[in-house]
Structure formats: C-alpha cells, structure tokens
Amino acid sequence: MRESSPSKPPQRLFIPGPTDVLPDVLEAQTAPMIGHRSTEFEALYAKCEEQLQRLFFTQSRVYILASSGTGLQEAAIRNCVGGRVISFVNGAFSQRWYDVATGCGKEAIRVDVPWCTAVKPAQVAEALEAALADGPVDAITVVHNETSTGVISPVGEIAAQVRAISPETLVLVDAVSSFSGVAIPFDEWGLDVCLTSSQKALAVPPGLAFAAVSDRALARAESVQGRGWYFDFLLLEKYLKRSTTPATPAISLVRALSVQLDHIFQEGLEARFARHRTLQERTHAWAQERGFDLMAEEGYRSPTVTAIENSRGLDIPDLNRYLAQQEMQISNGYGPYKGKAFRIGHMGEVQVADLERLFQAMDAYLEQAG
Ligand SMILES: Cc1ncc(COP(=O)(O)O)c(C=O)c1O
Q1: What is the whole-number distance in angstroms between the Cα of residue 370 and the centre of ligand 1?
Q2: Where are the domains of the chain?
Q3: Residue nearest to atom 8 of ligand 1 (CA)
C-alpha cells in the first residue's frame, strides 16, 4: 500500500466530500487557457474519457460535464424516463433523486426503505412487480452509497433482479460517494446510467460530473420528449464522438482531472480499492473499541464513509473546533441524525497515517471530555 508521499500534505478533510486534492492536481488548474475546439483540448478530453471508461469497467461512453452530481441525476431522469420511475429512498440523497424526478414532472413511485439499511434486491423485485401491474416502468433510481448514513447497497444484484423481471426497465445508479473507492463494474452489472461527482473519492475539485451510459439508455433517450438541451444524451453523444462537449467545458477542471486520473492508475485500481477497505476497517475498529455503534446495518457498510452513532453524547461542533486547531474536520450526522451521529469520510487520497493522526486527536478530545 502506498503510504503518505512527500508530495501529499496531511489530510485536512475527513468529511464525505469535498475531499482534499493533491497539490499537483490543484496546480494543474492554473495552466493557461486553451480553446475548447482545439486539438489540444480534444486530446485531453479523449485521454480522460479512456481512463474513465477503465474506471467504470465499461466499453460504453462516459459523459464528462461541468455540473455537480445532482445535474446528472436530473440528466438521467430527463433522458431515460418518459412514463414512470420507481425511486428507492433509504437516505437523503436517494430522497433527492426522487425530488429531482418529481421536479422534472415525472410520475415517480417512491419506495421508502428504512434509513441505515440497504436497498435489497427482494424489495426491488416486490416494488417493481407491484408497479408493473399498472403498466410499464421506465426506470428505477437507487443510490449505491448513501452518504447520509454510510450504507452501501448491492446495485449489481439489484440490476440483475430488475433485468430478470422487466428487461425494458433501466437501472439508474448514483455512485457519487463510492466511485473509485470501490469497484463498480458497469458492464458486468448491466447498469444503464451510473453517475458520480468529481469532489468525492475521485479527489478532484468540485464542478465536474461523470455518467457512464449504456446503449439501452441512449436508445431510450431517442423516444423521450423534454430532454432539455444541456443534458441531452443525444447531443452529448454527438459531441463526444469528436472528444468534446456541446457547450464550453470546464477546461481547468478537466486538466485537474487528467492529473488525478494518472495518480489513480499509478496507484492501481486494486490497490486503491484495498486501501479504502483498510481505511474502513480501521475506522470501524476505532469506533467500536471506544464503545460507539455504527449506523449502517452490518454487511452493507460503506468503504468510503462511516456514520457513527454518537452514543457518548459528544458535542460534535465542539469536537470539530478542537480538531480545527490541528487543521482537521469531520462531519456531523446528516439531517435527522445531526448531533445523534457523526460521519468520518475516508475517501480519495486519505492514507492510513492520516487516519491515525485523526484518531490520535479524537482520542485526546475524548480523554479531555471525560
Ligand atoms: C450519494 C450522493 N448523491 C448525490 C450527491 C449530490 O452531489 P453534488 O453535490 O455533486 O450535486 C451527494 C453529495 O454529497 C451524494 O453524497
């Protein structure tokens, strides 16, 4: 495993995104502008496209857009849903996707799954079969890694279940906080849209979003009205063939992305995924040894963010003020769990030595707080 290199300053952000960005990735953004219709930009774009396809384990296209991940939630809905969509809601970001679907005027069937638990294939099968009794279902939405609770759902098994029951129902996956921290084999799992943001485990500054899109999803877009313009898959496809985007891309961010993708492949994908599993195990051990319970149900715990029950009644803002003296920060619980839980992001370029430094400081705080 790669340990902290001299070029990597100590980690500051242990929040579940944005994550710290390596200095040369930040630096890449300061290069002079180039025209986006130039061969130089098209070569940069094509290189990133090829690397992202490898990261998604896909032969399909990956759209690279100046947007945050939520924009691509909206794109997936606008392009893939003409009729009805089922949204599985087991946390704040799956709730957001449901809100995006209704906000786009779609008929969204909301299926609530208790927070802190994963969406299971059997629940998906049941909801899909019930909905199919009233007519076709264009797509389902599911969040791979619920950042609000630290739960990871088995989207590969979910996709297989959907495919077996209703081959025309597309599987739309939000992998905003898991992508590049854990393998997401897009083709093998038979996903239709898998979207992510730059600022999470990828460790690129915020502002870019990426979506792997299947041929089936693209074919669906042809028959869906109201796709809009900026996020229209057909238009994006036309320009991607020329290694560019319809509107002006975020050139500086694409430069940063390119440098970070090189770092990711230098580390190696298997090593990167293994490092995230080690960080997860170390975080679980720290919490459990100190009498804290984990929020996520066992067997479905995230490799990139751990949500910890605040069973010792810590004052989280006070803890963060303490950590800030050493230039570190963790996250409070999300929404209804504010004060009742805290979250530690261990994604991106976090190394074991970074976590040890955080836990040393947290132990000192616990000692002084009694
Ligand atoms: C799982 C998940 N989905 C979607 C989003 C929204 O992403 P963005 O802020 O890039 O729009 C987030 C942000 O934290 C997230 O964690």
Answers
A1: 35
A2: 23-264, 268-369
A3: 69
Q: If you count DSSP H runs as helices and E runs as strands, how many of each does the chain have, helices first?
A: 13, 12
CA atoms within 13 A on the CB side of 241: 5
Query: Quick count: other Cβ atoms within 10 Å of Cβ 284?
Result: 15
**37 CA to middle of ligand 1, Å?**
30
Domain 268-369 fold: Aspartate Aminotransferase, domain 1 (3.90.1150)
Looking at residue 5, its pLDDT comes to 54
DSSP 173: E
In ligand 1, the atom with minimum distance to the C-alpha of 209 is: 10
Cβ of 74 below 6 Å from ligand 1: no
Q: What is the pLDDT of residues 294-306, one digit of tens each?
A: 999 999 999 999 9
Query: Is the pLDDT assigned to residue 76 strictly greater than 80?
Result: yes
Query: For ligand 1, is residue 174 a contact (CB within 6 Å)?
Result: yes
- Say how many Å lie between the CA of residue 69 and the centre of ligand 1: 6
**Token representation of residue 332:** 């409070």
Q: In the chain, pLDDT over 90 holds for what percent of residues?
A: 98
Q: Which atom of ligand 1 is nearest to the CA of 148?
A: 16
Beta strands in the chain (DSSP E): 61-66, 84-89, 107-112, 139-143, 145-146, 151-152, 170-174, 193-197, 208-213, 305-309, 331-332, 341-345
Q: Is the dihedral of CA 107, 108, 109, 110 positive or negative?
A: negative
**Rounded to an integer, what distance in angstroms lies between the CA atom of residue 213 and that of residue 223?**
16
Fold category of 23-264 in CATH: Aspartate Aminotransferase; domain 2 (3.40.640)
Give the pLDDT score at 3.
Answer: 47
The alpha carbon of 176 and the centre of ligand 1 are apart by a number of angstroms equal to 6
Mutate to test the pocket of ligand 1, among 64, 70, 152 (most ligand atoms within 8 A of CB): 70
Please indicate, yes or no, whether the overall pTM of this predicted structure exceeds 0.90. yes
CA of 192 to the centre of ligand 1 (A): 19
18 lines ligand 1 (CB under 6 A): no
